[in-house]
Amino acid sequence: MVTRGVTSPKQGRRWPPRPRNPVSGLDITPHLPAGRQLIEGYGGGAFRIASIRHQGSVLVFPTLTQSWSAVCAEDISLDSLSALPALTEDNPADILIVGCGEVFLPPPAGLKDGLREWGLVLEWMDTGAACRTFNVLLAEERAVAAALIAVD
C-alpha cells in the first residue's frame, strides 16, 4: 500500500508526484453558442457528443446527431448519405467532413462531385482527424456537418 506524500524507497521520489507549475485560471475549452454539439470522444464503436453516448456511426450537425448505417469506408456512398439533403434544410452545411474509419482510404469515385451537386464540399479523412476537424470548424461557427464511421 502506498501512503500519500511519502518517498518511494526504490526510486527516492515523492509519491504521488506533485504537479509542476500547475496552470490556474487558463481555460482553453472553446466557447460555443448554446445548443452546439462538441464531439467529446470516440472509440469502442461509439461517440460521445454533447455528453451523450451514440453507439455506431453517426451523422453530426452543430445541433443534431443522427445514427448512420455505414460501418466501413466501403459503405460510404451517395446512397448511404441520401438523408443529407433533407437534413441540411434545417441544419445548413457547406462542408461535409467524412471520417472513413481508423485508417485513411481514398474516397469512392463520384462522391465528391455528387456532394458538390448537393451544395457540400467534401473533406475526407480518418475518423479521429474528422472529429477534431469538426470541433475546430464548429468553434469557428462554420456551416459544417460530419459523417463518422465508428472505430474501436
Keywords:
five-stranded mixed beta sheet; 152 residues; three-stranded antiparallel beta sheet; Hypothetical Protein Mth938, Chain: A
How would you summarize the topology of this molecule?
Blueprint: E1 6-7, E2 14-15, E3 39-43, E4 46-49, E5 52-55, E6 58-61, E7 64-67, H1 84-90, E8 95-99, H2 111-117, E9 121-125, H3 127-139, E10 144-148
Parallel strand pairs: 8-9, 8-10
Antiparallel strand pairs: 1-2, 3-4, 4-5, 6-7, 6-10
Please characterize this protein's 3D structure.
The protein has a five-stranded mixed sheet with strand order 7-6-10-8-9, sandwiched between helices. It starts with 5 loop residues before the first strand and ends with a strand. Helices cover 18% and strands 26% of the residues. The protein has one domain: 3-Layer(aba) Sandwich (Hypothetical Protein Mth938, Chain: A), CATH 3.40.1230. It contains three helices and ten strands; from the N terminus they run βββββββαβαβαβ. The model is unreliable at 1-8 (pLDDT under 50). The protein is an alpha+beta fold and 152 residues long. The chain is globular and about 50 Å long. It has helices at residues 84-90, 111-117, 127-139, and strands at residues 6-7, 14-15, 39-43, 46-49, 52-55, 58-61, 64-67, 95-99, 121-125, 144-148.
Number of domains: 1
Flag low-confidence runs: 1-8
CATH class type: Alpha Beta
Q: Label the CATH architecture.
A: 3-Layer(aba) Sandwich
Quick take:
A hairpin with a 2-residue loop joins strand 6 (58-61) and strand 7 (64-67). The protein starts with 5 loop residues before the first strand and ends with a strand. With 152 residues, the protein is an alpha+beta fold.
